[in-house]
């Protein structure tokens, strides 16, 4: 292990006071950020060079602490924090000596390498604060923790008494979801101890595909462990960019496969980093038209006899008239649809070409290649399912995998949701400790603004579960480690307007490390510790197979406290302190949760806390380690292992969806033009489709303010040279991107990496409204729509039309 802290590494910035001062005063990137309140209140009194002096004085030996972050970042890496005299001076990552063939490399990405700047940023919140201006203005004053926790406890009680427990809401917060312990979950526990709260469901990340994949396979766990792809000759990455999204370390496996000769094809409107590093072929496609290409591919495969008839006969329903479920009239099968038996339209590549802008010959070639290569893996990312038609495209690919016999076969891939059966440790470890919620009604996360606005806007038809109506509006919001009240939510301007009205939501508590755009809507703003200042256990994404200790590295500075710590005080004030904490510190809770899972679920191979801490160097594999092929059991012995669908088979045609009779979620997944897609009449006013992607320099909006990461990739609008020329737009100039919902101003990058007709912004840039309310930060969510998907009622951030003009 290296222990030398060389002069030329990144810590130079920290130990050289001049550089540091220059960075604080002169960084234009930071100046652009709305730090109105934090400038004077949160940062001013402290001398930022304290850290610098501490670092300069040190002669003592360096300590290297193994840890990991708890962000929802796609991975979970082995981070080594180099600590001298209580200060992190450098970050390194998993050394060669620790590599393990059965595991991904888990080396820090560029964000991980920059964690130190996230933790030691002068603009980090330092003290609890209380709003003084109008809500949303961002004016705060410093208060004591005693005042903060008293105000919180009093309001929790008052609002409960006045409006009922269902008026209390926990906002989406993924900032601390990669760990088994989080403030948001402990808040749920406290709410449940004092009457309950309004829970939400639906993952904004993957909820649409999670909801629809079971209509094909009976379950959403359609993924295999990635090691099983080792000898796969062909991988099609469909709207999938693991080079940037990490995605359970997929890229680790893909790069190895690439070296061994696997061919990669990427279908994406953008020439993504994954396309540039992996792809033998890039197929650009207009967003929301994926199903048209899938339909045409299936047409080619079936009309040329390349489908796997034996597989179809044995394992599926709905392929043709012989394989239809009872009680469905003629011409509803897949073959009937593709041959145009009902609508007279044969779904040829020539039919799909003008819709998708993919040349017919390319569609034909891809269809033949996919069907002729055995096995082949068509793997979907989640960008396409975050569209209004996301349920259709997620299920569409499962039909392609099915008719080519790539399901349940080593080296194939079932498409759809794509995570393996690996238990989600983050949930299962935290789950049992939450107590029962007495409020049974649940809203979809997409309903939260409506539920603040007017309780009657939320109905069973648009997402309400377990109740016919809501009894009350949301009157109190806690957001602990999320930026979803504004920034990450679609149609920000509408959400902000609702939040500004203090007669609607009466009390908002927000904890973060930074004065984010959502923080400005807080009534009480709390400075949380970072993952380096507390204990946790990180769990990797669903294709991974390990948990990793997130060891506390440094002591918190200023008045920063973990959410759990202040929640304990609130619990005391509400008279439930002992039940809430059971006398445990945060670390003791984590020990308890891990040891409990170790005892109660021996089949998962979860270690004890001690093993994690000492014996096996902070990191442990759990089952299934490797070798899991989704649906292999069902395919090997269907009689004893039927699929969990009503028919017990793979459902190409879903009778359940047929009976639902909703044109937006048809029984056979197929192309339906999307609202605000390229066939919408709105294109006459807003001719460009805008998509967002998850870029390498932040996890959603987390680390947006990290100056090192701002240098990695600036926020800019990608536009094709053809579209730029039509608008007389010059490279690097500022442009205005607009639609009826909002406007954002951003520099432009003219590039062939985006296809004509489509523009793209990286997701997660901070919303930075100027005096006139016009965003100057290139934040896509001032433009996105809060429309929700047909069945899951899920978010559809990706589907929208805009126009771009010179600023
Ligand atoms: N670096 C980084 N990694 C992350 C995150 C991050 O913010 N930054 N966030 C994490 C989180 S929370 C999540 S949920 C995952 C998300 O992972 P994904 O949802 O898979 O990531 P996205 O970038 O949204 O989408 C993947 C690709 O889909 C493409 N795409 C968009 N629309 C369409 C379409 O209509 N058709 C096709 N074929 N392609 C389309 C985009 O151009 C993009 O390259 O990533 C995780 N990993
Ligand atoms: N246009 C568009 N919008 C999207 C998406 C998209 O692709 N396009 N993706 C969607 C998806 S998949 C997701 S998951 C959501 C994510 O939306 P959010 O859940 O809001 O995630 P972040 O934006 O990362 O915000 C997390 C916040 O937690 C803070 N934080 C980090 N660590 C800590 C900590 O230890 N304690 C506390 N208290 N705070 C901490 C960070 O500073 C950050 O402000 O966004 C969604 N929004
Ligand atoms: S941000 Fe995620 S992927 Fe990057 S180093 Fe941290 S844990 Fe790993
Ligand atoms: Mo996500």
Structure description:
This protein is an alpha/beta fold and 807 residues long. Among the domains are: 58 residues; 246 residues, Dimethylsulfoxide Reductase, domain 2 (3-Layer(aba) Sandwich); 126 residues, Barwin-like endoglucanases, CATH 2.40.40.20. The chain has 31 helices and 26 strands. The strands form 7 sheets. The chain has a 6-stranded mixed beta sheet with strand order 5-4-16-15-14-6, sandwiched between helices. Strands 22-24-23-26-21-25 form a 6-stranded mixed beta sheet. The N terminus is likely disordered.
Q: What is the number of helices? A: 31
**Biggest sheet overview:** 6 strands, mixed
Terminal CA distance: 52 Å
What is the approximate shape?
Answer: globular
**Any guess at the CATH architecture of the domain at 209-422 and 629-660?**
3-Layer(aba) Sandwich
**What percentage of amino acids are in beta strands?**
5-15%
């Amino acid at each position: 292990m290296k222990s030398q802290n060389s002069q030329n590494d990144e810590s130079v910035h920290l130990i050289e006071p001049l550089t540091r001062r220059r960075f604080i005063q002169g960084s234009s990137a930071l100046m652009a950020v709305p730090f109105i309140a934090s400038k004077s209140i949160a940062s001013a009194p402290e001398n930022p060079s304290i850290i610098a002096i501490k670092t300069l004085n040190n002669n003592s030996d360096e300590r290297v602490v193994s840890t990991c972050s708890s962000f929802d970042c796609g991975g979970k890496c082995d981070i080594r924090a180099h600590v001298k005299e209580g200060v992190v001076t450098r970050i390194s990552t998993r050394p060669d000596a620790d590599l393990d063939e059965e595991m991904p490399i888990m080396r820090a990405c560029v964000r991980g390498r920059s964690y130190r700047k996230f933790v030691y940023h002068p603009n980090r919140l330092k003290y609890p604060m209380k709003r003084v201006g109008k809500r949303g203005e961002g004016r705060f004053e410093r208060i004591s923790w005693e005042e903060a926790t008293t105000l919180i406890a009093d309001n929790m009680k008052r609002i409960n008494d006045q409006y009922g427990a269902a008026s209390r809401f926990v906002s989406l917060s993924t900032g601390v979801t990669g760990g088994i312990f989080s403030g948001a979950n402990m808040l749920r526990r406290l709410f449940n101890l004092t009457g309950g709260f309004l829970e939400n469901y639906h993952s904004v990340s993957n909820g649409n595909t999670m909801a629809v994949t079971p209509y094909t396979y009976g379950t959403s766990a359609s993924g295999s462990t990635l090691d099983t792809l080792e000898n796969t000759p062909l991988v099609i990455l469909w709207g999938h960019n693991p080079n940037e999204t990490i995605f359970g370390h997929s890229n680790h496996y893909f790069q190895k496969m690439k070296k061994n000769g696997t061919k990669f094809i990427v279908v994406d409107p953008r020439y993504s980093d994954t396309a540039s590093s992996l792809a033998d072929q890039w197929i650009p496609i207009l967003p929301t038209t994926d199903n048209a290409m899938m339909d045409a591919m299936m047409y080619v495969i079936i009309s040329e006899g390349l489908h796997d008839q034996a597989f179809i006969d044995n394992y599926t329903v709905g392929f043709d008239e012989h394989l239809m479920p009872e009680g469905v009239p003629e011409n509803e099968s897949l073959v009937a649809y593709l041959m145009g038996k009902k609508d007279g339209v044969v779904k040829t590549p020539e039919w799909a070409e003008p819709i998708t802008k993919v040349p017919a010959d390319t569609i034909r070639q891809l269809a033949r290649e996919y069907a002729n290569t055995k096995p082949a893996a068509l793997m979907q990312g989640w960008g396409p399912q975050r569209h209004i038609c996301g349920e259709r495209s997620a299920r569409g690919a499962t039909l392609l995998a099915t008719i080519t016999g790539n399901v349940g076969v080593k080296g194939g891939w079932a498409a759809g949701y794509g995570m393996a059966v690996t238990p989600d440790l983050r949930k299962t470890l935290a789950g049992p400790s939450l107590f029962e919620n007495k409020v049974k009604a649940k809203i979809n996360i997409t309903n939260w603004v409506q539920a603040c606005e007017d309780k009657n806007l939320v109905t069973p038809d648009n997402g309400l579960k377990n109740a016919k109506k809501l009894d009350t509006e949301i009157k109190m919001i806690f957001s602990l480690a999320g930026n979803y009240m504004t920034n990450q939510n679609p149609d920000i301007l509408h959400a902000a307007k609702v939040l500004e009205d203090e007669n609607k939501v009466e009390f908002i508590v927000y904890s973060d490390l930074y004065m984010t755009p959502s923080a400005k809507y807080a009534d009480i703003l709390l400075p949380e510790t970072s993952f380096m200042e507390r204990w946790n256990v990180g769990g990797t994404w669903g294709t991974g197979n390990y948990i990793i200790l997130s060891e506390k590295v440094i002591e918190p500075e200023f008045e920063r406290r973990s959410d759990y710590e202040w929640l304990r005080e609130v619990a005391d004030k509400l008279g439930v302190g002992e039940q809430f904490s059971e006398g445990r510190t945060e670390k003791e809770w984590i020990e308890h949760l891990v040891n409990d899972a170790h005892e109660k679920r021996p089949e998962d191979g979860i270690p004890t806390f001690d093993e994690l801490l000492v014996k096996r160097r902070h990191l442990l594999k759990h089952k299934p380690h490797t070798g899991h092929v989704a649906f292999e059991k069902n395919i090997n012995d269907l009689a004893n292992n039927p699929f969990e669908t009503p028919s017990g088979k793979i459902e190409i045609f879903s009778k359940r969806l047929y009976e639902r009779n909703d044109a937006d979620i048809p029984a056979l997944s197929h192309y339906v033009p999307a609202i605000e897609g390229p066939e919408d009449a709105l294109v006459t006013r807003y001719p460009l489709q805008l998509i967002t992607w998850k870029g390498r320099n932040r996890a959603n909006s987390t680390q947006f303010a990290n100056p090192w990461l701002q240098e990695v990739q600036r926020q800019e609008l990608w536009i094709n040279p053809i579209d730029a020329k039509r608008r007389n737009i010059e490279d690097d100039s500022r442009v205005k991107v607009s639609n009826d919902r909002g406007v954002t101003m951003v520099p432009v990058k003219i590039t062939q990496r985006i296809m004509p007709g489509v523009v793209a912004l990286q997701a997660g840039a901070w919303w930075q409204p100027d005096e006139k309310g016009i965003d100057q930060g290139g934040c896509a969510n001032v433009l996105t729509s809060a429309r929700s998907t047909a069945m899951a009622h899920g978010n559809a951030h990706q589907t929208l039309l805009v126009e771009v003009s010179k600023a």
